[in-house]
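Worked example

This section walks through a single chain of length 351. The input is the sequence exactly as stored; nothing has been trimmed or padded.
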Amino acid sequence: MFVAGASVASGSYLWQHRHGLEAAPLTVDQELSMMPERHMTRAEVAESMHLEIARDEAGMSLEELLRSTKPDMDLQHLERLADELRHQRRIEEHQEVTARAAEDAYMDSDDELDEGYLARVRDPDADHPEDVIMVGDDWDTLLATSRRIEAVREYVGFGNFNILPWDDMLAFARNVSEIGRFQPRELEFMESLFHADARNLGFYGERTSNDITTRVDRNNVVKVPRSGHFLWRGESLDLFNRLTGDIGDTLILTSGVRSIPKQFDLFLARAKRTEGNLSRASRSLAPPGYSYHATGDFDVGKYGLGLGNFSEEFANTNVFRELQSLGYTNIRYTVDNRFGVRFEPWHIRVA
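Given that input, the structure is written out below as tokens.
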């Protein structure tokens, strides 16, 4: 499917297969540096991203996230637990529910899934032969772009950033000296990624936004108290309120409406953690322009579970079992789904 050196769009960004590539140093323009210049390997960048990704997805400060995590579970423990859960049984008591959801009408293919595809969605955090990776100058551009987006997010705050429009992000960067305007190579990279066919990365969901400047209408969203997140008025908000009414305060909202900049922030953070492997990133987060959070989907978790809400550990909680027992909820990314995405028991599908 992929050819070494294939570009996402007509731009010059070469996203190549991994063939024993050496770790690339981190080189960012001095105006971008938020810390003293130094060289970082891909592995170092990936390790530093773990808590930042979880913090962003949780919509809370790092201190709040750590407080909500089990006190006896440090980061290494959580990493080991996630690895163990990833290779354990595929949650046998929920197979019937997830299999039924996977066969819903929104999937338009009855073809059997090939072993290569199944290997990727069942082991999403491993490198696979078909994976596409950013190398050389493109890796540096990814890092520079991600750092500038992070600076905007820190400036406007987590809650506001969830619904921040593209043009507003560029304006903040242009007018706030400590952020600095986006450079031409960064803009070209983001536009190439947004307009690319996500199937080239292994993501088979539908495009949910054709315009990178799409704005979130504030009149159509509601901020959910104590979450830092927004939900779309109508079906999404009604469903979440129904869930909290049936399950109680142990169920929390961990991600709701995401603007284009928000999805860029999350996807690029994941791409850094995967050391530039965009296919691995897309098995955990929809590429910008393809997120179902733009059409109403939202993520839920269990209060107090912390980082576990973003792993299969959530499927072993009483909150997940209650969700399944209600009979009116559906998971978007089920076991062995056809989107090319890992099993996400926390991602609620809204029709």
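What to look for: The first strand starts at residue 15 and ends at 16.
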